[in-house]
Amino acid sequence: MSDIVIRVADVSKRFRIDKDKSLKERLVLRKSNRVPVEDFWALRNVSFELEAGSTLGLIGHNGSGKSTLLKTVGGILTPTTGFVEKRGRIAALLELGAGFHPDLSGRENVYLNASILGLTKVQTDRYFDAIVDFSGIEQFIDTQVKFYSSGMYVRLAFAVAVHVDPEILLVDEVLSVGDEPFQRKCLERIKTFQREGRTIVFVTHSLDQTRELCNRVILLEHGEMIIDGPPVDAIRTYRDRYAVPEDEPVVDEGTGELTITGVEVVGSDGVKRTEFVPGDDVSIQLEVTVHQPVAAWVCGIEVRNQVDTLVFGTNSQLLGCTLPALTSGVQRLRFTLPQIPMTEGKYAVTAAVHPPEAAKEFHRVDRVSGFTVRSGSDQTGVVYLRASLDLL
Amino acid sequence: MTEPRPVHGPAAVHDLPMERVNAPQGFWRGFGGTVGDIWRYRELLTNLVRKELKVKYKGSFLGFAWSLVRPLLMLAIYYIAIGKFLKSPVPSFVVFLFSGLVAWTFFADVVNGATAAITGNAGLIKKVYFPREILPLAVVGAALIQFALMLGVLFVVVLATGRSLDLLKLLYLPYAMVPLLLFTTAIALLMSAANVYLRDTSHLVEVGLLFWFYMTPILYAFGTVQEKIASAGGWVEQIYLANPMAVIAFGFQEAIYQTETDNGLQLLYGGDLALRLGVVTVASAAFLWFAQRIFARAQGNFAQEL
Predict the structure, then answer these.
(1) How far apart are CA A13 and CA A19, in angstroms?
(2) Three-state DSSP class for residue A328
(3) N or C: which terminus of chain A has fewer CB atoms within 10 Å of its end residue's CB?
(4) For the segment B165-198, what is each residue's pLDDT rounded down to a tens digit?
(5) pLDDT above 90 (res B234)
(6) Phi-psi region of B40 (alpha: psi -120 to 50; beta: other; left: phi over 0)
(7) In chain B, how long is the greatest CA-to-CA distance?
């Protein structure tokens, strides 16, 4: 497995942002050097070699050059300096349905799109049933594509794209289309590609997918390679750089009878901490300040991961605690989460105080505090289980 | 991109050569490479031609018939306005008009369509690799099919008017079609690329085509112009004849209309038409090569300019 299939050699890409494209502007501004041109380096000195059968993930925030790099590899953009070499056929799933024409039927579009991706008619004929089957829209295949729902549209497009038989597959954020069963189907397909020893380069914002699928990750920032290595390192660096809790504004709302004036994450020793490993005890200490007397109240917390999935949530009512009436002063509480079974990632804490029944809230603070879990690379998913393997 | 091959296991990867993506081509070479590339994508080309034809009149009542009706209506309008109202001195004016117009319609359709060929498919250009020349070529292909249909109608009209056809002169038809195709394709490549960088191109093309149409002897006989410009000197006539479309129109008229003179009026080009067509063919071939090289230079930046 030492065959290099993609070699990116010191590639830089400069974009010129012309402010105006009309003839008038060009003629008027030609002599004076005020032609409004801005230079922008989308990629700077990017170099890497990719071996056959590996799956490379490109991550980075919006505008970091991921897609530009993918397009350069795919031959859609020409690098300003440096060059790209490849072995074998590349198929690019850059945007699904880019070649679809709304006035043509699904069937006609399948043939058109397949030929855009480089399939011959004979090959398309052979795959046609499989394509339609994969898309799951048999009964609409002779309907004009403009009557399709957006979900049907991408299903068909994806079905065509994955039936192209490339040595190298470039995927740009297309794995998040369709409903859940279809997404699973797509992921299955990608894994089949991996098993068949094909090389995959893909751009994604889903770090979980990255961890699940890739054996190598390149992190880009402002067109420069920050990290090129195993997924766990790159994802960790990425999360540390673009931590969600610090970036996003804290939502702070409510009717104000009670306010949450402090949220702290502490370890089992009661000392403030931000980093844990699976199995640690995590305590969340809240401080509630009373502004108006309240007879009955409930206090709750939520823990969400970096993609804002609710990982855990509870409140005093669910825990069977009736909180005492408050008249003035400050009330402190502590939620203890023993032996957290959570995988690597950043977690954010949301806290709220509200009356027992009513829908309103006295006060809620979103993502006010957070902590990080370091679990290493031995598993993926949402929960950390101390898995082991025995041969029987 | 390598040639689409039959399905095989990816195990064969190490047998494949390492090749540059978007390898820089020298200006003087590279034409052949592109032609080979286009040949490998010929199925995409035919599919795109089919799409052009299908989509153009999709949803309209007359459908594909429009591609015949529209030029025939133009023919009728010119025939009534020029032939009847202005009393053109050309006998069997409708045949004369039609034989020139059939070439011009092809040319104008392609130039108009190709100007928007790249900009109109921005979505594709930005997302998928394929030889960009395919897009203007698809316009040429679609127009070629309409051209063939028009040619069929033209022969029906000729037979209906009861004019005799000299079969030997009919050989001018294929002879004139070669430079027409070469020249039109070259212009199509240039205009499609130019419109990416300068969106004014589409407006310029509109006006330019109108001017060009009247500079080409389609509505009037060559003799009419010759009389007017004879006093200005031979060089004006040479400039007029330097228009490849004029020479190509002569070729079509020579092949189908065939009547050289009438009542002392020079209807067709009197000189050595075969030679002129030959020169135009060679020049158009060189022009096409040149246009493709310009296109190849420009296309590297298409994806970011769109």
Answers:
(1) 19
(2) coil
(3) C
(4) 888 889 999 999 999 999 999 999 999 999 988 8
(5) no
(6) alpha
(7) 78
Four-residue CA torsion sign, A167, A122, A177, A68: positive
The whole-angstrom separation of Cα A166 and Cα A304 is 39
Work out the burial of residue B181: count CB atoms within 10 Å of its CB; fewer than 13 is exposed, 13-18 middle, 19 or more buried.
buried
Short-list B37, B89, B97, CA closest to B71:
B97
Q: Please list, in sequence order, all residues whose beta carbon lies within 8 angstroms of the beta carbon of residue A72, skipping any fewer than 6 positions away.
A: A8, A11, A13, A43, A78, A79, A84, B21
Q: How far apart are CA B91 and CA B87, in angstroms?
A: 10
Which candidate from B4, B47, B123 shows the least CB-CB separation from A111? B47
Nearest by Cα to A24 from B203, B187, B295 = B203
From the DSSP assignment, how many helices (H) and strands (E) are in chain B? 13, 3
Counting residues of chain A whose pLDDT is more than 90, the rounded percentage is 3
DSSP assigned state of A140: G
Closest chain B CA to residue A102:
B55
pLDDT at B140 > cutoff 90: yes
User: Of the candidates A350, A224, A159, A119, which has an alpha carbon nearest to the alpha carbon of residue B130?
Assistant: A119
Cβ proximity of A345 and A306 under 8 Å:
yes
| Strand A55-59 relative to strand A199-203, pairing | parallel
Question: Which among A15, A90, A123 has the least Cβ separation from residue B1?
Answer: A90
Contact criterion met (CB < 8 Å) for A3 and B14: yes
Phi/psi of residue A387, nearest 5 degrees = -75, 150
Alpha-carbon distance of A283 to A333, in angstroms, equals: 10
What secondary structure, in 3-state letters, does B230-296 show?
HCCCHHHHHHHHCCHHHHHHHHHHHHHCCCCEECCEECCCCCCHHHHHHHHHHHHHHHHHHHHHHHH
Residue B290 CB-density burial (10 A; 0-12 exposed, 13-18 middle, 19+ buried)? middle
Q: How many CB pairs under 8 A join A and B?
A: 138
Q: Give burial (CB, 10 Å; 0-12/13-18/19+) of A63.
A: middle
Element (H, E) at A87: strand A81-87
What confidence tens digit (pLDDT) does each residue in B51-64 have? Answer: 888 887 777 777 77
The tens digit of pLDDT for each residue in B87-135 reads 888 888 889 999 999 999 999 999 999 999 998 888 788 877 888 899 9
**Please, what's the b/e burial string for A332-348 (b: 16 or more CB within 10 A of its CB; e: otherwise)?**
ebebebeebbbbbbbbb
Residue B8, pLDDT above cutoff 50 = no
Chain B hits for A104, CB-CB cut-off 8 Å, are 51, 54-55
Beta carbons within 8 Å of A185's beta carbon, 6+ residues apart: A134
> Does the model's pTM come out above 0.80?
no
Count other Cβ atoms within 10 Å, centred on residue A8.
Answer: 23
Q: What is the ipTM of this complex?
A: 0.74
- B37, B40, B43, B53, best to mutate vs chain A, most A CBs in 10 Å: B43
Residue of A nearest to B125 (CA): A76
